[in-house]
Write a structure and sequence with these properties.
223 residues; mainly alpha; Arc Repressor Mutant, subunit A; Tetracycline Repressor, domain 2; 2 domains; 0% strand; globular
Length: 223
């Protein structure tokens, strides 16, 4: 007796891996998480934005938490490697300041919600900071910090001995510089309300900051 086709069928096979679909889901999740944060984001909103069904989201990322980790890694990797590379390089200290300012402000102008999102995620998942640095650099965070501090300390001390700069710890130097770049974006809604800026006004403010921040920062360190 010949078995019917329906009897011979097994369980449905999962779809073949599709890099474009996976990327579309990741892009959609990135946009949704930036708007709503991980806690406020809904998978239904992500699948709608990606134009896929919930089964595909589950197939590629399994859980919302795994998708959130992928989005966080991609978001933080947009800036972290570049800044680490600049600060740890052999470029002149003044050139480093200019490069960090231009890199940070140029990119954050395109993704103004990025700092708020990253800070929020780290507040709820502090373990991701060390995991991310290790994944991006292949080194443990302490090694990266020690490397950057050693390079900056040597450059700062040379300028202090020459009478060109006030003494400052390299960690303070780096944090002060990064904070002055990131704060306007992390506090963007508050600053826009306090200063009466619309989007165009905030963009003009940041463009002026790109020209003035590096000279201001360096002047503050001179005797």
């Amino acid at each position: 007796m010949i078995k019917s086709t329906s009897q011979r069928k097994g369980p449905p096979r999962p779809p073949a891996p599709d890099g474009q679909t996976e990327q579309r889901i990741l892009d959609a999740a990135h946009a949704v998480f930036m708007r709503s944060g991980t806690a406020g984001a809904r998978t239904q909103e992500i699948t709608k934005e990606a134009g896929v069904n919930p089964a595909l989201l589950h197939y590629y990322f399994r859980t919302k938490e795994r998708l959130a980790e992928a989005v966080f890694r991609r978001a933080a990797c947009q800036l972290l490697p570049a800044v680490i590379g600049i600060l740890a390089s052999d470029a002149e200290l003044e050139e480093k300041v200019e490069q960090v300012v231009q890199t940070e402000l140029q990119h954050l102008s395109k993704t103004p919600y990025l700092p708020g999102y990253i800070l929020s995620e780290l507040a709820h998942h502090p373990e991701r900071a060390g995991q991310l640095v290790s994944a991006v650099t292949g080194m443990v965070p302490a090694e990266i910090g020690a490397r950057i501090s050693a390079v900056l300390r040597k450059q700062i001390n040379a300028r202090v001995r020459a009478g060109r700069m006030h003494p400052i710890e390299p960690e303070q130097f780096a944090v002060n510089l990064l904070a002055m770049c990131v704060f306007p974006f992390a506090a963007r809604p508050m600053l826009m309300a306090m200063l009466g800026f619309d989007k165009a006004g905030f963009d003009t403010f940041i463009e002026r900051r790109r020209r003035e921040l590096a000279p201001f920062f360096l002047r503050a360190l001179r005797p």
